[in-house]
Amino acid sequence: MSDPTIQRRLILERRPQGTVTNEDVVLHEALVDSPGDGQILIRNHFLSIDPAIRDWMSERPSYLPPIRIGDPVRSTVIGQVVESRVSRFRPGQLVVGIGGWEEYSVADAGQFSLVELKPGDEAQHYLSIYGAVGLTPYFGLLEVGKPKPGETVLVSAAAGAVGSLVGQIAKIKGCRAVGIAGSDEKCRWIVEDLGFDAAINYRTETDMVASIARACPQGVDVYFDNVGGQILDATLLNLNKDARVVFCGAISSYNSTEPVPGPYNFWQILARSATIEGYLVSDYLDQFPQGIAQMREWVGTGRLQFREQVIDGLENTLDAFNLLFEGRNEGKLMVRVAP
User: Fold this and answer.
1) What's the mean pLDDT in 302-322?
2) What is the per-residue pLDDT for 61?
3) What is the pLDDT of residues 55-109, one digit of tens each?
4) Is residue 298 part of a domain?
5) Residue burial 79-91, b: 16+ Cβ < 10 Å; e: rest
6) Range of the domain at 49
7) CA-wise closest residue to 56 among 68, 44, 47
8) Tens of pLDDT along 117-143?
9) Could you give the angle at the alpha carbon of 211 between the alpha carbons of 205 and 217, nearest 5°?
10) What does the alpha-carbon distance between residue 142 and residue 275 come to, in Å, rounded to a whole number?
C-alpha cells in the first residue's frame, strides 16, 4: 500500500449545546501528517464510542483537557502502525491508545500500547472486553465497590458495555445483582441471558425509590453509578449502612444545557455511613495485565458474556455516538473505519 496523503477527519467546530449535531462536529478532508520524534502514525481500524467524549467536547473541568476547537474529536482507537519515529513500535504492528475520529492519527508513542492478539481474539476486543471498557467494571467493582458474598449490587445503565459486566462480575463474586435499564427488552436480556437476579425499567417506573426497594428487598450494599441524576437520588434512599457508591459516570447530565440540581438525598451518605468514591480506570494501568488475564479466563469458561455493536464508516460516527444518549446502543459501541 502506498503512503497515505489525504484523509477524512471529524473536527470539533464549536462547543455543543445539548445533543451534538453535524454543525458541532464536521467531516473534513485533510493532509495526513508525518510523525515527529517520539511519535507514530496509525491507520485507525476501530474508534471507541464512549459517553465521556461528550464531556471532553465541553469546557467543563475533567480528567482530560477539553478538545480544542479545530481538532479532531478525541477517542480511544485501535489500528496499525504506518510509520514510527520511536524504536519500540514498527510499521505493521497493532496498537491501541488515544487518537481521534479520523482515518489516520499522529500521536505520541507514550499514549499507545502494543496489542498481541491471542487465539480467538479480534482486534476490536481490545476496545471492549480486554480494553478500558472491560477493565472499568473489573477494577471499579472489585477494588472500589469491594463486594462481599451475599451482598446486593445495583448497577445503572446495566445493559451497556460497562454495566452488563458489573452485574456478571457481581454474580461471580456471590452477590445478588440488580440492573437498571431503559427497555423491557434490555431488562429481559440482562436477567435471562446474563444472569442478573432482577431488573428495573426506569422508563416505565413512576416511583424509582419504591422500584429499587422492591428489587433490592435487603437494601443496596454496592451501587455502581453510570448515570447520576434522579436514579442516583432514588438509590441513595435505599442504601444499607456502610454501603459503597462507585461513581463511574453521569451520562444523564452530559447533554444538559443548564446546571443540574442535586442529588437531593445526598444526606443519606452520612445517615448510612456510606462511602462514595469517584473512579477512573486509568488509576489501575499497572494492573491491566492481571485484569485482562482474569477477564479472559471468565470469558473462556463461559462465565462472562459481552456484546459489541459495530457501525461501519467514519461518516456515521456522530450518529453512532448519539445512540448512547438515546439509549439505543447494544453493548460496547464502536465504529469500524478500515478493515
Assistant:
1) 96
2) 86
3) 999 998 888 999 999 999 999 999 999 999 999 999 999 999 999 999 999 999 9
4) no
5) bbbbbbebeebee
6) 6-125+306-336
7) 68
8) 999 899 999 999 999 999 999 999 999
9) 165
10) 15
Residue for grid cell 520524534:
37
Task: Tell me the one-letter amino acid at 196.
Answer: F
pTM reported for the whole predicted model: 0.91
78: β partners: 46, 96
Q: How far apart are CA 318 and CA 10, in angstroms?
A: 9
pLDDT higher than 90, residue 178: yes
* CA distances in angstroms from 318 to 52, 73, 275, 314, listed in the order given: 14, 10, 36, 9
Measure the CA–CA gap between 283 and 260, rounded to whole angstroms.
27
Task: For residues 276 and 158, state if they share a domain.
Answer: yes
Give the cell for residue 132. Answer: 478500558
Q: Is the same domain home to 100 and 179?
A: no
Predicted confidence at residue 251, as pLDDT, reads 75
Q: Grid coordinates representing 231?
A: 436514579
pLDDT digits (tens, 9 = 90+) for 229-244: 999 999 999 999 999 9
Q: DSSP assignment, residue 300?
A: H
Q: Which three cell numbers stand for residue 164?
A: 452488563
pLDDT of residue 255: 65
Together in a domain, 153 and 276: yes
Length of the chain, in residues: 339
pLDDT digits (tens, 9 = 90+) for 21-67: 999 999 999 999 999 999 999 999 999 999 999 999 999 888 899 99
Same domain, 269 and 142: yes
Residue 9 β-bridge partners: 28, 102
Q: Looking at the structure, do residues 49 and 114 belong to the same domain, yes or no?
A: yes
User: 12 and 114 share a domain?
Assistant: yes
- Domain match, 136 and 267 both: yes
- 255 in the same domain as 146: yes
CA distances from 285 to 104, 131, 288, 292 (A): 25, 11, 5, 11
Tell me whether the omega of the peptide bond preceding residue 119 falls within 30 degrees of 0, making it cis.
Answer: no
